[in-house]
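Risk register update: the risk of archive-format incompatibility is retired. Evidence:
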Amino acid sequence: MSGEDDRLIDLEERYMHLEKLVDQLNAIVTEQQTEIEALTRQLKVLQEEVQSAPDENTGEEPPPPHY
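Archived output:
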């Protein structure tokens, strides 16, 4: 084999490694996006619950015990 053949083989191996890495990273990003969407839905539900909850701080609070 010549030096050029070795170089071509090395480049092909690197390309295959990078292609596999890109596929793995894409799977991770897809999984994270799914999780972000689920968390966003949960946050929206919690915000709606907080907004619809009765305001418990409408009356005067007694002074703290150290007064």
